[in-house]
Each structure stands twice: as structure tokens, then as C-alpha cells.
């Protein structure tokens, strides 16, 4: 059975593909981590972001949403200077604003997970692509979620980022149909 080719020979990318990508998650901290990392990827490659993942985890206390929501401008500047993360100030500041928006959603819906998974009636969208070229960069659903998140004050949540995010948290299974990690092959 052939696997998805996008991880290439990069071991970190392969491990992410095999163990996390398109695996459903309902853990708010993990979901917040993936939202942060997908936003940080904007304009960069996923391999660069994964290489800095540990730095992000240390800088943001394993994506403790409450902690991130209370970071001061000075603390965010210190994080920018002292941790192995992408040094874009706007992306770093988005961690705080997105944490605040997540907390508001948690108050309204009980969890960030519940809010997001309601879009797919709590069942992942399982695609059956035969080539990676068939995979869309965005969908009407990612456009809708992006629009709704922006209204709620989220940053770095365009429809392409949100589609990648949906894959990251398993709302969408985009493994190739022949990949051993596709939902129907596990």
C-alpha cells in the first residue's frame, strides 16, 4: 500500500503524518496548539514549523490556554527573543488574542472542541483521494469556519490555514485512499 508522499524522508514529518495528521482530537490544548502552529506556518513550510514545535511548547507552557491569554506584551517580546519559534511579532501576538477568543468560546460552548466539531456533526469528513493533487487547499466549510472564527476575534485563520488545521485535528481525513493511515485502512 502506498502512503502519502508529502512527509518525504523527513523523520519529524513522517512521525507527524503517521501519528497525528488527520487523527481526530477533542483536546482543547492540542487543538489550540494546532491552531497556533498552522497560523505560524502562514508563508512557510510545515517542516520549519514542526522543527520549532518544541520551542513553541516550552514558550507557551504546552499551550496552556489560560496562561497564553494572560501574557503581557513584555512577556510576548521575551518569548520572541528567547525561544526557538518563528519570530514574527504578529503571529506571536496572535497566540494571546486567539487564547482569549478560545476562552470565550469555552464559556459559550463548554469547549473549543465542541464548537469546532459541531461543524461536522462530530464526525470527521473522510475523503478518498487517489492522488495528492486532488486535495483542495480550502473548502466551503473551511471558508465558513474561517469567517466565523474571524468574527470571534481570531487571527491567522484564513480558509487555507483552517483547512490545514481541520486536517491537523482530524476533522478531515485527507490521507490518500491507499495510505495505511487512512481511516478505512486502520
Protein described:
This protein has 186 residues and is mostly helical. Helix content is 54%, strand content 2%. It has a two-stranded parallel sheet with strand order 1-2. Helix 2 (28-41) runs antiparallel to helix 7 and helix 9 (140-151) packs across helix 10. The longest helix has 21 residues, at 89-109.
Question: Topology of this structure?
Answer:
Layout: H1 11-19, H2 28-41, H3 46-51, H4 53-59, H5 65-69, H6 73-82, H7 89-109, H8 112-117, E1 125-126, H9 140-151, H10 159-168, E2 172-173
Parallel strand pairs: 1-2
Helix pairs in contact: 2-7, 2-10, 9-10
Main β-sheet, spatial strand arrangement: 1-2
What oligomeric arrangement do these chains adopt? single chain
Helix content: 40-55%
Please trace the helix and strand order, writing H or E for each element. Answer: HHHHHHHHEHHE
Distance between the termini: 12 Å
Rg: 16 Å
Strand content: under 5%
The 3D shape can be described as globular
Low confidence ranges = none
Secondary-structure content class? mainly alpha
Mean pLDDT: 96
Q: Tally the helices.
A: 10
- Report the major sheet: 2 strands, parallel
User: What is the strand tally?
Assistant: 2
State the gist of this model:
The protein has helices at 11-19, 28-41, 46-51, 53-59, 65-69, 73-82, 89-109, 112-117, 140-151, 159-168, and strands at residues 125-126, 172-173. It has 186 residues and is mainly alpha-helical.
Amino acid at each position: 500500500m502506498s502512503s502519502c508522499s508529502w512527509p518525504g524522508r523527513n523523520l519529524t514529518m513522517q512521525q507527524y503524518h503517521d501519528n497525528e495528521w488527520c487523527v481526530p482530537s477533542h483536546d482543547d490544548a492540542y487543538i489550540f496548539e494546532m491552531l497556533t502552529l498552522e497560523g505560524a506556518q502562514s508563508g512557510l513550510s510545515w517542516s520549519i514549523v514542526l522543527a520549532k514545535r518544541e520551542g513553541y511548547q516550552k514558550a507557551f507552557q504546552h499551550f496552556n490556554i489560560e496562561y497564553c491569554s494572560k501574557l503581557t506584551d513584555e512577556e510576548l517580546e521575551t518569548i520572541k527573543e528567547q525561544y526557538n519559534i518563528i519570530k514574527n511579532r504578529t503571529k506571536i501576538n496572535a497566540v494571546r488574542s486567539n487564547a482569549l477568543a478560545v476562552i470565550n468560546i469555552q464559556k459559550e460552548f463548554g469547549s473549543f472542541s465542541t464548537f469546532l466539531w459541531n461543524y461536522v456533526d462530530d464526525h470527521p469528513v473522510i475523503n478518498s483521494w487517489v492522488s495528492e493533487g486532488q486535495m483542495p487547499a480550502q473548502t466551503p466549510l473551511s471558508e465558513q469556519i474561517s469567517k466565523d472564527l474571524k468574527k470571534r476575534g481570531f487571527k491567522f485563520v484564513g480558509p487555507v490555514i483552517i483547512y490545514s488545521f481541520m486536517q491537523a485535528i482530524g476533522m478531515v481525513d485527507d490521507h490518500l485512499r491507499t495510505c495505511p493511515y487512512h481511516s478505512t485502512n486502520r
